């Protein structure tokens, strides 16, 4: 079986990533509600503490570092990385991809660029979408408008964003999130195109 798809079911892995401030979470929420293709969002695992109102098993799987390390060593992660040099690890469990397949949906992964590159190696047929803003200045404006992070963190995220932008050409698609509705519609068209391809070859 091809690692990227299941030819009998048309199963696909959809990866959406991009720098902080690109609007990934908002776009993914819209796609979950509106996509004509059944998307099952993979729940990421993390070692960071839960924030107020976050629910284990719904927002994230919250693991102690020891448990995360054990699962990593056992090969249970599709991808994992320490994000923004915070000391906290994030990853996608292979079981989350299996969950989407069993639910007859496509696995939707909202992950960082490093994780996406790892997924591309294992699933070269994955639908990979790089979400970005019209300019670096817009990234910075959005990060500052959040009002949730200190200057040091903002500068670190901007530095990471500059590095991540260099990987955009490795994705199958780049979508500029200059207007939410337009960006969501463009991604919907991409997914619809791939769903139509499967129907033609079925």
Keywords for this structure?
alpha/beta; 19% strand; disordered N terminus; five-stranded parallel β-sheet; Rossmann fold; 202 residues; single chain
In short:
This protein is α/β, with parallel strands linked by helices.
Order of helices and strands: EHEEEHEEHEHEHHEH
Write down the CATH class: Alpha Beta
Count of alpha/pi helices: 7
Shape estimate: globular
Q: In percent, how helical is the residue content?
A: 40-55%
Instruction: Tell me the name of the CATH homologous superfamily.
Output: P-loop containing nucleotide triphosphate hydrolases
Name the beta content range. Answer: 15-25%
Main-sheet strand order equals: 2-7-1-8-9
What does this structure look like?
The protein is of the alpha/beta class and 202 residues long. The chain has one domain (13-201): Rossmann fold, CATH 3.40.50. Helix content is 43%, strand content 19%. The strands form 2 sheets. It has a 5-stranded parallel β-sheet, with helices on both faces. It is globular, with a radius of gyration of 17 Å. The two termini are 15 Å apart.
Question: How are the SSEs ordered, and which strands pair?
Answer:
Blueprint: E1 13-17, H1 24-34, E2 39-41, E3 45-46, E4 61-62, H2 65-73, E5 77-82, E6 89-93, H3 94-102, E7 106-110, H4 113-122, E8 127-132, H5 136-146, H6 151-165, E9 173-176, H7 180-201
Parallel strand pairs: 1-7, 1-8, 2-7, 3-4, 8-9
Antiparallel strand pairs: 3-6, 5-6
């Amino acid at each position: 079986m091809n690692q990227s798809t299941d030819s009998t079911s048309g199963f696909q892995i959809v990866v959406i990533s991009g720098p902080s401030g690109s609007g990934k979470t908002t776009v993914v929420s819209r796609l979950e509600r509106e996509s004509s293709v059944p998307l099952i969002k993979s729940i990421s695992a993390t070692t960071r503490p839960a924030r107020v109102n976050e629910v284990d098993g719904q927002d994230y799987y919250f693991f102690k570092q020891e448990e995360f390390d054990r699962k990593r060593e056992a090969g249970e992660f599709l991808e994992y990385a320490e994000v923004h040099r915070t000391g906290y690890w994030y990853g996608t469990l292979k079981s989350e991809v299996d969950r989407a397949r069993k639910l007859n949906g496509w696995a939707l992964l909202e992950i960082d660029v490093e994780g996406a590159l790892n997924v591309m190696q294992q699933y070269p047929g994955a639908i990979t979408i790089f979400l970005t803003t019209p300019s670096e200045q817009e990234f910075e404006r959005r990060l500052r408008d959040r009002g949730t992070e200190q200057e040091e963190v903002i500068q670190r995220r901007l530095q990471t964003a500059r590095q991540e932008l260099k990987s955009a050409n490795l994705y199958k698609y780049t979508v500029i999130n200059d207007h939410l509705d337009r960006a969501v519609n463009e991604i919907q068209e991409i997914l619809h195109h791939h769903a139509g391809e499967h129907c033609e070859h079925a």
